[in-house]
Amino acid sequence: MKIKVEKLTLKYSNGVEVRCGKWKIGSVVWNSSGNPKGDNGEDLKYKAHCRLPGIKEFVGNFETEQKGVEKLQSVLDYWIKGLEQ
What we know:
single chain; 1 helix; 5-stranded antiparallel beta sheet; globular; alpha+beta
């Protein structure tokens, strides 16, 4: 499925919202509570949240906003594959 990435318009937020048509899939936002470290010591500055039913809300921490969006795309593909069964 094709996704659409929109800049968040909330007053105190920094990130993007991911949609499939009018349906909100999730968001990738700046992790302001402290940056966890990845396996190679890189700062994981963004966190992804999913809004799909049956999928856990917190998807993961990511180094870039784009990697978080790619993860939400793969979660959407997995979710839709489960609907087809």
